[in-house]
């Protein structure tokens, strides 16, 4: 599994937690920062999925 997938998942979880804490405490800055981190993590995770798919396709084409 591509490291971007695992790192992306970590950022998604951390961002979701920050966003939730920001909502509960009324801290808009923390909520926005959490949302940004969560979405950046999603993008990084998708990048990792694409890299994994490309690697799999490359393996299949060489067999």
From TrEMBL:
It comes from Luteibacter rhizovicinus. Residues 1-21, 44-63 have a biased composition (Basic and acidic residues). This is CsbD-like protein. The lineage of its organism: Bacteria, Pseudomonadati, Pseudomonadota, Gammaproteobacteria, Lysobacterales. Pfam families: CsbD. Residues 1-22, 39-63 are annotated as: Disordered. Gene3D superfamilies: YjbJ (1.10.1470.10). Belongs to the UPF0337 (CsbD) family. Residues 4-55 form the CsbD-like domain.
